[in-house]
Design goal:
Elements lengths: L1 E8 L4 E8 L9 E4 L12 H9 L3 E4 L18 H7 L1 H8 L5 E6 L1 H13 L3 E7 L7 H13 L3 H11 L3 H12 L20 E6 L8 H9 L4 E6 L6 H4 L1 H12 L4
Parallel strand pairs: 3-4, 3-5, 5-6, 6-7, 7-8
Antiparallel strand pairs: 1-2, 2-4
């Protein structure tokens, strides 16, 4: 297993990209990872390598603009940031790395971004995989974010973010809380986008997810147009891939195995 790091040019700044390549890599669609609201490449931890080993496919992860090792964002995060990702950073990644076909795996807000990318790029997307994805604004989500905002008033908590985002840590936190808690964002929903997803879809959600109920997962499973597998995991919170990495990797690999 090897990994390579590179920088690509996004519409508003440079993006950091890491690619994991198994020694006996199969000539099949790579898996592209889209991280959560406080996430970055490093915070995927062992999942990318484990997934590359289990599937024999390349795994590609990138830091969105303003996150991790990518360039600082030039301003505030727009409230259209979920839909804008498909036409912005993701499209830059896809075109500059020459990824004609791909599998999308998104966690949390990265999950709804992955849904939008799958809808936007149609047959280029071989499969959609979501972990704890949100597709509408729910009271439970807002309560969880409000509690986290209070927690991060402790400088020690913000220092934890600095480990991964450096001087961009405050921007990352404000982008998360400021967007989801903004009154104008309250009507956001991905419900109309879901029927545009025609590829095979795997939806994983934890019963104990503190940022969203299983209603999100069920709505995705009900509304996507392609074949779907729904996995509601008991005793699991917002990070299934950290809490049950081996089991999640096995589920992902089994779903992906027959795909081109």
């Amino acid at each position: 297993m090897t990994h390579t790091d590179t920088l690509i040019e996004g519409p508003k700044g440079r993006l950091f990209v890491r690619t994991w390549s198994p020694e006996a890599s199969v000539r099949k669609a790579p898996i592209i990872l889209l991280h959560d609201s406080l996430g970055c490449v490093q915070l995927w931890r062992g999942l990318p390598e484990a997934l590359a080993r289990a599937t024999g496919r390349q795994v590609v992860a990138y830091d969105r603009l303003g996150f991790g090792e990518s360039a600082a964002h030039p301003g505030k995060l727009g409230l259209d940031f979920i839909n804008a990702e498909a036409e912005g950073d993701f499209d830059a990644l896809r075109s500059q790395l020459g990824l004609e076909r791909f599998i999308l795996l998104g966690h949390s807000v990265g999950g709804c971004m992955a849904i939008n990318c799958a809808a936007r790029f149609g047959t280029h997307c071989v499969a959609l995989l979501t972990l704890a994805a949100q597709v509408f604004v729910e009271d439970l989500t807002l309560q969880g974010i409000s509690a986290a905002k209070t927690l991060f008033e402790d400088p020690k908590q913000l220092e934890r973010l600095r480990k991964y985002h450096g001087d961009k840590a405050q921007w990352v936190l404000d982008a998360w809380t400021g967007s989801w808690l903004h009154p104008a964002f309250s009507a956001w929903s991905h419900e109309a986008v879901l029927p545009q997803v025609k590829c095979p879809t795997l939806v994983i959600h934890g019963v104990e997810d503190e940022y969203g109920s299983a209603a999100h997962a069920r709505l995705i499973a009900e509304r996507v147009a392609g074949p779907v597998q729904l996995e509601i995991q008991p005793g699991t919170g917002h990070f299934p891939h950290r809490e049950n990495e081996a089991a999640v990797v096995e589920t992902l690999a089994r779903f992906i195995q027959p795909l081109a």
